[in-house]
Amino acid sequence: MSLLRCQELTKRFGGIVALDGCSLEVAEGEIMGLIGPNGSGKTTLFNLVTGFVRPDRGEVLFGQGRITGLAPDEVFRRGIGRTFQLPRIFPRLTVVENLLLPAAGSQGRGSTESSRSRRERALSLLELLGLASHASRPAGRLSYGQRKLLELGTVMMGEPRLVLLDEPAGGVNPALLEIIGARIVELNRQGTTFLIVEHNLGFVMGLCHRVVVLDHGRPIASGLPSHVRDDPVVLEAYLGR
Amino acid sequence: MGPSLIIGAAALGVLTGGVYALMSSGLALIFGVMRIINVGHGAMVVLGAYLSFVLLRDWGVDPFLGLVVTMPIMFGLGVVLELVFVRPLRADREALSVLVTYALALGIEGVLGYLFSADYRQLRVSYDTASFAIGDFRITWVYVYGFLLAVAMLLALFGLLYRTRFGAAVRATMLNRTGAQLVGIDVERVSAIAFGIGMATAAAGGTLFGITTAFNPDSHYDLISRLLTIIVLGGLGSLRGAIVASLGMLVVEDVASVLISPTWADFTFFVILVVALVVRPQGLYGVRVRGAA
Amino acid sequence: MRLSGLALLLGVAVAFPIGLPGPATVNVGVFTLMYVGLATAWNIVGGYTGYISLGHAGFFGFGAYALGLIVTRAHVPAGVDVFLLVPLAGVATALFAIPVGWIALRTREATFVIVTIAVMFMLQILATNLRGLTGGSQGLAFPVPGWGAAFDVPFYYAMLALAATSLTVSWSIRRSRFGLGLLAIRDDEDRARSLGVRTEVSKLAAFVVSVALVGMIGGVYGYYVTYIYPQFVIDPLIGIAMVLMAFLGGMGTLAGPVVGALILEPAQLYFPYGLGQSRLYLVVYAAVFLIVILLLPRGVVPTLGDWLEQWRSHRLAEAQDRPRGDEAVVG
């Protein structure tokens, strides 16, 4: 079942065409990788899906509904979460407060959930992420890698159906990278779909069920990681210019 | 009420708008380079006016000529103030700078009040009674001289910004402070000098303002509210915006003064601001920040 | 322990006018409590959301005029009845603040500050020009209650009630999820938005609540001083004073504005006496202002909190040193 469908998305910034009739699909329950050379439109795609930018043309369909052009908070409430290349957390709030902040998604418990059960959920999520000992510290004191984990946790608190990860491996040491990968697998097993933008091809190949390659604003290849890796079109896009 | 009255009012608006453009350009420059709102700019304008006043009263120096003295003094003062009060601010710079510059304004107001009392002053020159007419509307020639000087100074400012190496450094800092640092620009030095230039333009603006308008230490409130409104309308940090907004607002205000009434004229200032904010919060030349990664 | 400390403070505050008679002292108490309330209320928007408003003085005056107009038009007799109408002034200010706040909050950071300044001056102009309504620069007069020597005392309690209300509102906001959203807006508004926080509504709600409290305090102030004039009741210095107090004490904390007000307001009242009518007191004020900003950029309460934490962790480290020494001998 296709969870996210981008249809013919086009976006121009002045003279630059960031996305050029880009269409792709993410199936429910999968971990999909989105790779491509710099400037291929990956982050713009994320911005379009999450409502930070409006497309010039095209539609974004999520589940049964159309989410094109919705505001970011509405997109989150529909069940799509997103992280950023540089982890965006709330430095002056404590770690656990960061997790208590998000509004639960539409299929989550919403406002009927008691504050105690939310707190329990938050604390168990902190356990999962290995941040439980830092719960009451200001989030600004966390290290870079810890912030990435916290950011992921914050998004997960909204119980999203789909999570967009923007370069989760960026600037992360191999040991922590393994942990992040394991967490993603675990969360996926529990039912969350992931769309991951990454440059670290090893990370992508080991983690993703399927990979789509973007170049100049549109997909040029898609399929199993091993197939895509050997595709000459992909190699040319990365190396051949 | 003839059309000449409206044309005359509009002409006056352009002439005073030029002076406001000079004053607000300094404010826009300071914001553009340092990203701080100098709430004390009005006080600095008034300070400039008082400096000219002293030169005129005690040494008989013509205000226009006295600029040769007042502008360097204010420039130096600006650099010192930046070094002492603004540079030490590290975290939360934007919010703190508002408080700091407000404190400076109060300090200046206090000193001026102590030295000159609350009496209204004006820079009276011998040639300020000569006037010309546009239909039924009379305009004194000093407005024109002031306007011409303002234009000359703005041209000099733009020349500095677009034709010198220092100007390039300033523009680079305005566009991207970190990026400028990465190419070796001493942004702190640029900031201090920009602040000094801002003060110098305030001095010039103050003198021109003081020739045509009566002022006292309290006048800075009225001035700063207008200058801030102008730069918001023009788009924070945009010099072009400040100039266009100054001319536009002053023309509207002076025309409103004849069409509606003088008491409501300065209210139109703020009405325009409100309307503009509803329609275009980033101002004429401003950039809308959306915060996407 | 906290609750009993609070009860003690409240007890002292209530007993103050009875224990220390003398209208001059009670007068200081009235203004100090006024600023406790004002700084706390301002903090709800300035400290929690990070949107610095320099125009709160406008709403202070709005509340004063609102109460004044209600009282004079309805011919309310001087006395306690006027106090009962104060909430009405608060509601009026709140209603006015909704469209104003909605427009102002469309802007960010720097622009917002300027817009609030503009709003304040607009209100001042309106108060001056709408002579038929407000009396213009001739002023508006409240009825004068005949409470004789104990004139200041009911005003003291009225201000105490409003200060307590401000604090209670501020405290309950801070504990709530709504308050968490506000603090997140301060740190990273767009990120908060992308996590589902309804930022526009939250900001506006905080603004309206803050301003309504300020308006009510303004109403009592107007009643206290009897005559209100546009330039004295919509006074930028009042606006900046509440900001400075919140700032000195610690923006975004609960106790910060209170501490700031308790330190600065009595000082502010004694300064002009010391320096007479000369404008020099402005210079001293400015100097104090600058010293506070440069030396205590985070405010008294957070800085004390940091010292306490450092002291505590130092003691903890010391306490752990001794047994370790013994183990080394044994091991």
Written description of the protein model:
The complex is a heterotrimer of chains A (about 240), B (about 290) and C (about 325). Chain A contains nine helices and ten strands. In chain A, helix 4 (about 115-130) packs antiparallel against helix 5 (about 145-155). Chain A has a six-stranded mixed sheet with strand order 6-7-8-3-9-10, sandwiched between helices. Chain A is an alpha/beta fold and about 240 residues long. With about 290 residues, chain B is an all-alpha fold. Chain B has a single domain (about 5-280), classed as ABC transporter involved in vitamin B12 uptake, BtuC (Orthogonal Bundle), CATH 1.10.3470. Helix content of chain B is about 75%, strand content about 5%. Chain B is built from eleven helices and two strands; from the N terminus they run H-H-H-H-E-E-H-H-H-H-H-H-H. A two-stranded antiparallel sheet of chain B has the order 1-2. Chain C has about 325 residues and is mainly α. Chain C has one domain (about 25-280): Orthogonal Bundle (ABC transporter involved in vitamin B12 uptake, BtuC), CATH 1.10.3470. Helices cover about 80% and strands about 0% of the residues of chain C. Chain C has 15 helices and two strands. In chain C, strands 1-2 form a two-stranded antiparallel ribbon. The longest helix of chain C has about 30 residues, at about 300-330. Chain C is globular. The chains are: A alpha/beta (about 240), B mainly alpha (about 290), C mainly alpha (about 325). Chains in contact: A-B, A-C, B-C. The interface of A and B includes residues 47, 85 and 166 of A.
